[in-house]
């Protein structure tokens, strides 16, 4: 399953098995005890020399040792399997042997996954471990890849049933024995070959599950353009297969994360970007392009994402997949949740579903069901949620990729947004009982819950869709678009061009658009909800870019500002992530908007409330600095306007009066510069540097830049550390030039969000970095010679 921010970026649960395996084996530690045979096999497995397979022993010897060590006859079976799987074999006997081996491993794997395994003296050496140690994994890889070998111009064939057995055994071994999945991941030709097995419906789910696990631990990302006939393969998938294939795509189109915090610094990212430019597109970018070149791919994803529960596959095919889930242990917990729901509803509806043991089926391959089988609605919904999770994740990643505009155009054309709007109440944000949604071993608020993950993935998609793109107005319906036009008309300002250009046939239908629906659930969200962060981010993305008075008023009229202030002040929110998202949203909502400041002052109507608000701001400037920037910019604009309404707000608003004081500005400026350093700059805290620059740019406009620099110098001396702040600021500005004076979207974002031309940003930085100590606006003029430290090399190799 694909997971939220991220968040992106990788599917949920990646890499979980190696840690889980170590814990489950406990004191065993993987080191054999009876004799030295297993030690030699293990050594051979690591080195590739010496004893590596069962075929290197006689059957008599293996039988004798099996009596002592209780290997369940697995080495002998592998000996027979090797003998019956040669190139000229008809594989009939080979398949019979696989049928003997399979239950020995599957029961052990089922117990492992369901946490029922008990380590006893009799099972010191698990069957899966013995199977792998005696060369079983390598032998099955060779058998599976027999069709790639040609004899006299003809390629060998093995049955789907035999492939299915091989895949089942391999998967169970991966589950229970640490290191097997990584070894398979190193066999790149085998991984590519596995994709070809997905052409058969009989082996599709088993293959997809094994590939997903292998790709989850693979060090280097696979390239989809190396998969033979990728376009044909994907085009021939039915909708159910395509949805499951998205689990694999989640790994192949997301940029790999090193997991090292240092790599998230802007210094490291810049260095990585320089390196990437010389290497060309990344594997993830190549894979995204490969998928987008497949005819109808995005259209099919949009149909899957917006499909109603009633339009999903019929009862029979779903029951077949549930049987597969029962067999394929990766989905055991999902099945656990589904079956619990089914049992609850069956008691009320007197509908029954009879699930046979794995492998029991009728001639058509479907499980036996009672004559009155009815699939409970909750199971249909959970089924659809599991699909949509993967599909929304893939669409979200594509929306953030290099082909963003192409994906945006297709998503709009295929009506993804109105389709999601129609599903909002009944599926995405449906009312539910907690018991129906909690997976085994988790609680109802756990982010692993499919229901919760779907909501987060949906919000991430909205955020990516709206961010700095004119298609954001597709989140409204026709009536709401007319409301935006009426707001502009009443304010006597031009209508937003993007609103006028919006294709009305592609917008949401119904009484409310998707944005309005989101606002409604946002205001009802409990104070401790993990959704608050994502909801605020999604709404904020609608406001990002060039400030639109009409957009702001649309949201203000729906009580958004009061809701945010309630959460910040009255509920005294403690979560840093939620606070940051609310401060960012509040800043975008209030920027340059006199009506918003009036509403703010009406809500924060006592000194006590205002002090709580300031306490929240001061609790972390990294979280609140975007709001400070917006208020500072708004104050500057209001002070230059001649308007009675503006004058009234300036005289009454506590927040504007507070920010207008020079000591207040200096206090914030000092702290903003002091909490960041070049080596610790990230995408999250670089906003502190830009907010500092906004304060100084506005001071420069008023010819007060020397005053502000002189005050910073005094504050340094008062802290008994002369030069420490201004040297740091000098280094930060040098980095700013290096970072922003390259072609990327950051400079455009700075200009649009501040309404200050980027040329003025560059000029101000250049003036501050002027090396002339006689310049009253240069930083070096305020750093005494003994404390000068401005030439430090901060580049990262």
TrEMBL record:
InterPro entries linked: TRPC4AP
Gene that encodes it: TRPC4AP
Protein name from the UniProt record: Transient receptor potential cation channel subfamily C member 4 associated protein
Domain of life: Eukaryota
UniProt feature coiled coil, ranges: none
Pfam family, one: DUF3689
Cellular component GO terms held in the UniProt record: Cul4A-RING E3 ubiquitin ligase complex
GO biological process terms held by the UniProt record: ubiquitin-dependent protein catabolic process
Any one Gene Ontology molecular-function term assigned to this protein's record: phosphatase binding
PANTHER family with a match to the protein in the record: SHORT TRANSIENT RECEPTOR POTENTIAL CHANNEL 4-ASSOCIATED PROTEIN (PTHR31743:SF1), TRANSIENT RECEPTOR POTENTIAL CHANNEL 4-ASSOCIATED PROTEIN TCPC4AP (PTHR31743)
């Amino acid at each position: 399953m694909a997971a939220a921010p991220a968040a992106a970026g990788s599917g949920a649960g990646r890499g979980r098995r190696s840690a889980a395996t170590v814990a489950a084996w406990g004191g065993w530690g993987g080191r054999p005890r009876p004799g030295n045979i297993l030690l030699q096999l293990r050594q051979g497995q690591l080195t590739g020399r010496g004893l590596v397979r069962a075929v290197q022993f006689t059957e008599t010897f293996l039988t004798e040792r099996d009596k002592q060590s209780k290997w369940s006859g697995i080495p002998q079976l592998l000996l027979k399997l090797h003998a019956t799987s040669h190139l000229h074999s008809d594989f009939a006997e080979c398949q019979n042997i696989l049928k003997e081996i399979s239950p020995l491993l599957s029961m052990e794997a089922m117990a492992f996954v369901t946490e029922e395994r008990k380590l006893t003296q009799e099972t010191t050496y698990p069957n899966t471990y013995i199977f792998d140690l005696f060369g079983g994994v390598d032998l099955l890889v060779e058998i599976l890849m027999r069709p790639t070998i040609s004899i006299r111009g003809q390629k060998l064939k093995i049955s789907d049933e035999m492939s299915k057995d091989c895949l089942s055994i391999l998967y169970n071994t991966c589950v229970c024995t640490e290191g097997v999945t990584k070894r398979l991941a190193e066999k790149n030709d085998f991984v590519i070959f596995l994709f070809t097995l997905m052409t058969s419906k009989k082996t599709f789910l088993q293959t997809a599950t094994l590939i997903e696990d292998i790709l989850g631990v693979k060090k280097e990302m696979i390239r989809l353009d190396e998969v033979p006939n990728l376009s044909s393969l994907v085009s021939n998938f039915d909708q159910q297969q395509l949805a499951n294939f998205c689990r694999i795509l989640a790994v192949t189109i997301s940029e790999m994360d090193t997991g090292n915090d240092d790599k998230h610094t802007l210094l490291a990212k810049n260095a990585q970007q320089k390196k990437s430019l010389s290497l060309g597109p990344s594997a993830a970018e190549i894979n995204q392009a490969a998928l987008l070149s497949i005819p109808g791919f995005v259209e099919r994803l949009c149909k899957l994402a917006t499909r109603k529960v009633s339009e999903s596959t019929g009862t029979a095919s779903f029951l077949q997949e549930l049987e597969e889930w029962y067999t394929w242990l990766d989905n055991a917990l999902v099945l656990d949740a589904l079956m619990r729901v089914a049992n609850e509803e069956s008691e009320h509806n007197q509908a029954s579903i009879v699930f046979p043991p794995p492998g029991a089926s009728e001639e058509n391959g479907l499980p036996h069901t009672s004559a009155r089988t009815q699939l409970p609605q909750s199971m249909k919904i959970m089924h659809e949620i599991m699909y949509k999770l993967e599909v929304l994740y893939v669409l979200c990643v594509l929306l953030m990729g290099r082909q963003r505009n192409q994906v945006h155009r297709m998503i709009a054309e295929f009506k993804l947004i109105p389709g999601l709007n129609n599903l909002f109440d009944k599926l995405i944000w449906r009312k539910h009982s907690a018991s129906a949604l909690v997976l085994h071993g988790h609680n109802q608020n756990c982010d692993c819950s499919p229901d919760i993950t779907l909501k987060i993935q949906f919000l991430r998609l909205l955020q990516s869709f709206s961010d700095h793109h004119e298609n954001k107005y597709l989140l409204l319906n026709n009536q709401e678009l007319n409301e935006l036009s009426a707001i502009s008309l009443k304010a006597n300002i031009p209508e937003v061009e993007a609103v006028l250009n919006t294709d009305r046939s592609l917008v949401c239908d119904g009484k409310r658009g998707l944005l309005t629906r989101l606002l409604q659930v946002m205001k009802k969200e409990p104070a401790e909800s993990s959704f608050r962060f994502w909801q605020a981010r999604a709404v904020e993305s609608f406001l990002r870019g060039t400030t639109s008075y009409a957009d702001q008023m649309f949201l203000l009229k729906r009580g958004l500002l009061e809701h945010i202030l309630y959460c910040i002040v009255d509920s005294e929110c403690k979560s840093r992530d939620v606070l940051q998202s609310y401060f960012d949203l509040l800043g975008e909502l209030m920027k340059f908007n006199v009506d918003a400041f009036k509403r703010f002052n009406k809500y924060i109507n006592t000194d006590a409330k205002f002090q709580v608000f300031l306490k929240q701001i001061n609790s972390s400037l990294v979280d609140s600095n975007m709001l400070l920037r917006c208020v500072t910019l708004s104050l500057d604009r209001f002070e230059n306007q001649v308007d009675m309404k503006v004058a009234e707000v300036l005289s009454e608003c506590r927040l504007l009066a507070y920010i207008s004081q020079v000591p207040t500005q200096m206090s914030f400026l000092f702290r903003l510069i002091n909490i960041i350093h070049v080596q610790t700059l990230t995408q999250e805290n670089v906003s502190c540097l830009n907010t500092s620059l906004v304060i100084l740019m506005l001071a420069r406009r008023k010819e007060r830049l020397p005053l502000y620099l002189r005050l910073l110098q005094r504050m340094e001396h008062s802290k008994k550390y002369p030069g420490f702040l201004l040297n740091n600021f000098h280094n930060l500005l040098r980095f700013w030039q290096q970072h922003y004076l390259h072609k990327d979207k950051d400079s455009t974002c700075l200009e649009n969000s501040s309404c200050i031309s980027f040329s003025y940003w560059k000029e101000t930085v250049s003036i501050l970095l002027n090396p002339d100590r006689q310049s009253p606006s240069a930083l070096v003029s305020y750093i005494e010679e003994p404390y000068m430290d401005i030439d430090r090399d901060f580049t990262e190799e």
